[in-house]
Amino acid sequence: MENYTMEGRTYRYYGQDAPLYPFGYGLSYTTFQYRDLVLSPPVLPVCANLSVSMVLENTGQRDGEEVVQLYLRWEHSSVPVPRWQLVAFRRVAVPAGQETKLYFQVVAEQRAVWAQDWRLEPGTFTLFAGGQQPGQQMRAPSEVLSTRFTVTGAARPLRGC
Predict the structure, then answer these.
(1) Are the C-beta atoms of residues 45 and 153 closer than 8 Å to each other?
(2) Domain span holding position 54
(3) Structural domain contains residue 129
(4) Is residue 21 part of a domain?
(5) 3-state DSSP percent of the chain in helix, strand and coil, to 5
(6) Cβ–Cβ < 8 Å for 110, 85
(7) Which pairing describes strands 144-152 and 43-45: parallel, antiparallel, or unpaired?
(8) pLDDT of res. 133
(9) Closest Cα to residue 90, out of 19, 24, 21, 18?
(10) Residue 24 — very low, low, confident or very high, per pLDDT cuts 50/70/90?
(11) Count of other CB atoms within 10 angstroms of residue 136
(12) 51-95 confidence digits (pLDDT tens)
């Protein structure tokens, strides 16, 4: 085998076709609301990590657990990349009527692209946070928040950070 590209071989690279059972698929006995998605800093150097915080509220009548998922999308990349990539997830138990503030760290390595070696590139990125993949259709409502951030500086090999 000489062609190691993933395009057309895994659902992350299928284009606009959604997988039948995407990550996080399922139902819950309660409902959740996401709010106050904050990225720090919103503009960061090419080798820096990104801090993410948000509030998750259980708006239902029962205690429940939610799998909070963070996805990253490159707006422009020099090489083919997935539509979005899972960069963090956490199962969180939230009692009925309560809320919790969550913190995540997206490290620079998670923004690396393969171009004969792992490279970090500047540009605009979108971060999605919620109980499902971006654009996923489910029977149970679950929202996905999104916001953009910018990476500045020159492209460099990952090992150079």
Answers:
(1) yes
(2) 28-160
(3) yes
(4) no
(5) 5, 45, 50
(6) yes
(7) parallel
(8) 76
(9) 24
(10) low
(11) 17
(12) 999 999 999 999 999 999 999 999 998 898 888 899 999 999 999
